[in-house]
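Summary for the lay section of the report: proteins are chains of building blocks that fold into shapes. Here we show the chain for Transketolase subunit A and then a coded description of the shape we predicted for it.
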Amino acid sequence: MTSTRARRQSTLELVAARIRAHVVDMCAGPEGGHLGGALSSADILAALYFSVLNVDPQRTDDPDRDRFVLSKGHAAVGLYAALAERGYFPVEELTTYGRPGSRLMGHPVRAVPGVELPTGSLGHGLALGCGFALAHRYAGRDARTFVLLGDGELQEGSVWEAAIAAASLRLERLTVIVDRNGLQLTGATDGIAPLEPLADRWRSFGWAVRDVAGHDPDELARHLDAGPWEPGRPSVLIARTVKGRGLPFLEGRSSSHYVTLSPRNHARAVRALRTTEDAG
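The coded shape description reads as follows.
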């Protein structure tokens, strides 16, 4: 860590902090939201939208754009925050989340600029990503496809069917990020359906694998920009994260999965995020 980095947060860290702040505000609305998984993936989203993805908010139909699929669609509040910060729609629209008439629903839909496909029914995103990657190949485009999976989602058999297909089709322009926060709605993922050794499992399916700490967006961006890591193989980045990251009273707890923050806890969360940002 450089002395400058020690004194001041990087640009991507500041973006991730803003994403977390928006997530907390949205989860203080009347409908609440999937707080824990959105906070655990904030650094991943910051790295993607502000360093890695070749996208232009003013040209959402550019055929050469990279594609991103939020397979863990319940973390939509995190995606909305990233899209707003990136300029796909005004940040002020985030205040409409979950309200009658808003296009910002509990799971992402294509009415929201920047959302490629509606998601939320877990286990489908990787197959959709395979379709994008294959379409790019047939069209002769160099565009990349990124898919963000939850670790609880890896219990879906369709994920592994798509993983087999991606490897057999040699979709080297396809990258998966696993938000490995270790928790799902009903408890610890490994207490419900053990996944480890997760890196070896993906390798056995023919993927190039990197297993990293998941809360350094600059490091995440470095890995994601370097793909494909092995010629002819799709890539998977296992990002070791903390559910509810940034809120000490909810970090590492399955109770953070879906939360409607009371005014008191909203203020508490805002203070916690400010303390973390100031410490950076």
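Put simply, here is one thing we learned. The chain is about 40% helix and 10% strand.
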